[in-house]
Amino acid sequence: xxxxxxxxxxxxxxxxxxxxxxxxxxxxxxxxxxxxxxxxxxxxxxxxxxxxxxxxxxxxxxxxxxxxxxxxxxxxxxxxxxxxxxxxxxxxxxxxxxxxxxxxxxxxxxxxxxxxxxxxxxxxxxxxxxxxxxxxxxxxxxxxxxxxxxxxxxxxxxxxxxxxxxxxxxxxxxxxxxxxxxxxxxxxxxxxxxxxxxxxxxxxxxxxxxxxxxxxxxxxxxxxxxxxxxxxxxxxxxxxxxxxxxxxxxxxxxxxxxxxxxxxxxxxxxxxxxxxxxxxxxxxxxxxxxxxxxxxxxxxxxxxxx
Length: 306
Hints:
Shape: globular
CATH class of the largest domain: Mainly Alpha
CATH superfamily of the largest domain: MetI-like
CATH topology of the largest domain: MetI-like fold
Radius of gyration: 24 Å
Number of domains: 2
């Protein structure tokens, strides 16, 4: 994980410099710099040094918790990220809960009721979730539930008012969480269904049924536990994906999180803010993946790490 993080920082830093000279942002009307100011700012940002030295200095600052300052308003990147990351985590957690609580039970139901109307309904749900772009679903949801029916708000999350789980606060999460979680829920359904079908056809499940074990015990104690490894991998990676992949949904719903902030950083060529956000995404993805590896051994005693 450490080697992956170091390699990722090098790639992110190199790509941020490939976007061009960030000081060109100040050449726009209203941000003109004198040659002396440009030279001073270039030295402050280490842009007057070789690229390798820029990376070494940047990485050293990152290890000390200093991600630099934004280009225009000169705020600390850590402060900006701290103001936005909570909104992204809340939306990601809501979407993750929706995808897990809907996708996995539907996958189990689809496998147990194989060939029935429940199975076909689940497969249609999965097909629509995987094949339909999330931004299109988001736009259609806004038109239907916010514009036409006026049931839900279409814009950004309102600041908390009173109890966090009140309807005043929850209504802002419903559309973006469902739109963000539908695709992963479809993936959970397909993976869980395939794993359950394989386990339900195995010999030890047939033996348990022959012994007279109840159907519920066979499904949830014997079959589901053994079929959990493939969905667990997807669950962990999906959680990381919700943290790192909310750019489209946050933009569609004007959600004030890291994804929308990253889009703003791209358009303003704010390489310090952009590299800081991407670095947070990389760390989150690596940590969640590491936790999934550890969870394998907890769920399945046959998996051991030396």
